[in-house]
Every structure is written in structure tokens, then in C-alpha cells.
Amino acid sequence: MTAKAPLASPARLAAALTHLAETIDARALEGDAASSWTAKLLAKGPDAAASKVAEEGGELAEAVRRESDERVASEAADVLYHVFVALRSRGVALDAVAAALEKRQGTSGISEKAARPPKD
Predict the structure, then answer these.
(1) Where are the domains of the chain?
(2) pTM as predicted
(3) What pLDDT, on a 0 to 100 scale, did the predictor assign at position 4?
């Protein structure tokens, strides 16, 4: 099966992700769990954030299998949001994620995976 369309528009996504990261940081600093889902989730800690990443990842997988392109995009947005919140809950900077992606550039996914050390 071939992809329907190229990923394209990385600048638009980068702008949206920048706004998302800034919003999450602002909500974290405000810490108002009564009015902010982000602050509420961060207050619950990394375990709660991890659970949401898993839940939303499953919903994205189901959408990819069975639902409309619009639903896939919506679920992907949910996953990205919850990944950012999870990173913030652990204090992992987006720069660390960027560095991990940069390290993989120019390497096939098969080669990169084969070179990983075994998990404990």
C-alpha cells in the first residue's frame, strides 16, 4: 500500500508544535489544575501522563485502521499533545528529542534499530 499524500508542510507543523510547547510550558508554570487540563495532568505526574500517551496511541492506531483521515489527524494531534505533556512531566526537553532524531538522520530504520543496545 502506498501513502495517499506526502507529509509536506513541515513548517506549518513546526509552528503548531512550537505554539503547543509554549502553551504547555505556560500552563505548567501557572499550575492551575482547576482550569487547565495540562496543569491537572502534570500535577498527577509522569505515570498519569504515560497512561494518556498509551491510551491516545491506541486510539490513533484504531483510527489509522478504520476511520477517516480527519479522525486520524485529530488522534495524531492528541498523541502529540500528550507526548509533549509527558516529556514536560519528566523534565525532558524538546532539544533532547531533536538530538535523538538528528542522530538518526541518514540511517535506515532497520540499521538504527539493529544497533540499539538490548533493553533491560
Answers:
(1) 46-103
(2) 0.87
(3) 74
